[in-house]
Input
Amino acid sequence: MSDAVRTRFAPSPTGYLHVGGARTALFSWLHARRHGGRFILRVEDTDAARNTDAAFAAILDGLRWLGIDWDEGPDVGGRHGPYRQSERRAIYDRHLLRLAEAGHTYDDQGAIRFRFDRGAGPTQFTDRICGPVSFDLSDPETSPDMTIRRPDGSYIFHFVNVVDDIEMGITTVMRGDDHLPNTPKHIALYRALGHEPPEFAHIPLILNADGSKMSKRDQGAAVQSYMDDGFLPEAVRNYLCLLGWSPKDDREKLAIDEVIARFDWPNLNRKSASFDLEKCRWLNGQYLQAMPLDQAWLSARPFITGAGLPADDPERGRAILAIVRPKVRLLSELSEWFGWFEDDRLTIDPAAVDKALGDPDKLAAVRELRAQLADLKPWSGDAVQSSVAEVAARHDTKPGKLMLPLRVAVTGQTSGPDLLPLLQVIGRDSTLARIDRVLATASES
Ligand code: GLU
Output
């Protein structure tokens, strides 16, 4: 078991969960899953001044939403909580004592500093992604000894990070390449604590399309915004996989099991990934379209009720969804389309009425059609279409020429969802009542 792969995600809860962090978590998780290893969540919250409960909750919510599950941790209400460094002080004290006893530390105005071994030559290692790396810590001017405990007794990130990676038996440290310059210091700590360092894999940062570094303010930076905007977690996770990993063919929509099976170092990019929210939206549309309808309805429902639209009838909800989902990419775009199916959302556009029903013959045809629909049995989109064809024949016109007048008579607008499926869903009573309402405005003009 000791040589099994063990990875971790070690966020500091100082803001919301950033896509860069989520991507790091995902890659660490993928590596563990690929090798049948374990993935650990460790919240690095030793800096009390900067941590917030909201940030802590956002990390957990975001990871759970993305389906990135962790394998170990203290029991919290029957499931694994994350490890929290703020609860592990005794462990750090013990390791600090050992370091001190071995002569690696000294007191500096109440702070405890770690003494680098200046004569050991450059620190060299081969990063799994970045390749061979060499750092020279020999110059105290450029690499001063590192503080590992503040005068107030709180521990500095570098020390607790390394102690925990040792304690948790981490075999592969995957993290953003902004941590690459920290790595020689961490390696020095490993050695002083009597351990060989794990392998490192530093993932290039995510850039905006214009090459600038992605910041907190950029659209799509916070995982929470994907939840709010109606993205599907599977789609976002798939998109995040592509930010630095590639199947080495042209495919972009990949099931997570396949990504796991093919997650390997040669497929990880050394170049920075460039962030493309538009592509993520596109991918979301692909997922939404391919999802089983009942599952899609469950995902869509909160966005329907959130817009004040009824969602109590799952059969009706699914029927509408089947009609309108090809039109959207995000769940949040659905409510606008669902509105077409609610009588009380009918908005009559006088210009549309004038355009489609201004011609007396068209108006007469729609009146005739209305009479025919009143007796139509059984009610269905196909049956409506046959009625349209019959009325059109009587008026010496093509059925297609009556579709716009019918659409405007039922919806008050010249555009909207596919008409016959809409009529099938709203049913006869609603169809006739709507036609009456619209024709009343047509006759007035
Ligand atoms: N707490 C550090 C961060 O959020 C973790 C770095 C690491 O993964 O080692 O950047």
User: Anything to note?
Assistant: The chain has a mean pLDDT of 96.
